[in-house]
Design a protein that fits this description.
The chain is built from nine helices and ten strands. With 288 residues, it is an alpha/beta fold. It is globular.
């Protein structure tokens, strides 16, 4: 099969169009650029690297379209896994000419191994530290490697658990609130599926960890994602339609809410003390 735009050998078909390596990369960067331009993303972007394929693709794409980026990695101290991921993140930064900033959760007295629900704690810790890093480094926004498959899976998982309030933050861009020390957040890969992100990393020979997080094995979100990909195979573009629908629902539900300032750390919180500080306090108590 030949590429739609040249005589090159096609490697992927998207929406009925065949793409060679060169034109697939142009398509991919175009989708990333569409998010950046729509929300007028400018200035310094803190890019959260996980060591996986998606964040690798995110950093490389932002670098390729000329954005000013500052990559960082949060070491979650998950035995073997975290070290493998940090190594790949560092390799990627070396290739692209960046210095990788590493944040170690142990410095905050946090250990996921002691948690009954490590995934919930992990999410809270990562969100807090991503925002804190971007704020401390005077970045204009934080970019994560969440893609279309992730966004729609996240929304369906919340529906399955009657967690309607967590539709907030499902959009590709979340405006910052300076008065609450909240930095803006963007998902440059929002319109790209898992398979497309994997293909982009392979084409560009980007290093990424293939290890799976031991805490996420058998997670219900994996089943939801498999179901969505199977549905996409029978009903092209259904995930994009889902994402647009969830986006509209979020806008209909959107309200300011009672955002406060955490009494302990000074960052945003829905209560008087934020979840991150509560986690730290609990673990300090366990140490005594």
């Amino acid at each position: 099969m030949k590429c739609e735009y040249c005589n090159g050998e096609a490697i992927e078909v998207i929406n009925g169009k065949a793409y060679c390596e060169k034109h697939f990369s142009k398509y991919f960067l175009g989708r990333v650029r569409s998010v950046i331009d729509k929300f007028n993303i400018r200035g310094k972007i803190a890019v959260a690297l996980s060591g996986g394929k998606d964040s690798a693709a995110c950093l490389h794409a932002l670098h390729s379209i000329g954005m000013k980026v500052k990559p960082f990695y949060i070491n979650l101290r998950i035995p073997d896994y975290s070290e493998a991921c940090e190594k790949k993140a560092a390799e990627l930064c070396d290739i692209l000419g960046y210095e990788l900033e590493v944040i170690d959760i142990a410095e905050y007295g946090i250990s996921l191994e002691r948690e009954r629900k490590p995934c919930s704690t992990c999410g809270t810790v990562k969100r807090y530290l991503m925002n804190k890093f971007a704020f401390d480094e005077n970045c204009d926004c934080v970019a994560t490697g969440h893609n279309l498959s992730d966004a729609v899976t996240f929304a369906f998982n919340n529906l399955a658990n009657v967690n309607i309030l967590n539709f907030r933050g499902n959009k590709p861009y979340l405006k910052g609130k300076e008065e609450y020390r909240m930095v803006a957040k963007v998902k440059p890969l929002y319109w790209l599926k898992d398979k497309e992100c994997m293909l982009y990393t392979i084409i560009n020979n980007l290093p990424f960890a293939e290890e799976e997080c031991p805490y996420s094995i058998n997670a219900p979100t994996l089943k939801i994602k498999d179901w969505l990909h199977a549905l996409e195979g029978e009903w092209p573009n259904v995930m994009i339609n889902f994402a647009k629908s969830f986006w509209k629902l979020e806008e209909m539900m959107e309200k300011e809410g009672n955002i406060n300032i955490c009494k302990k750390c000074g960052f945003a919180s829905y209560g008087s003390i934020c979840k991150f500080c509560k986690i730290r306090a609990k673990m300090e108590k366990q140490e005594k």
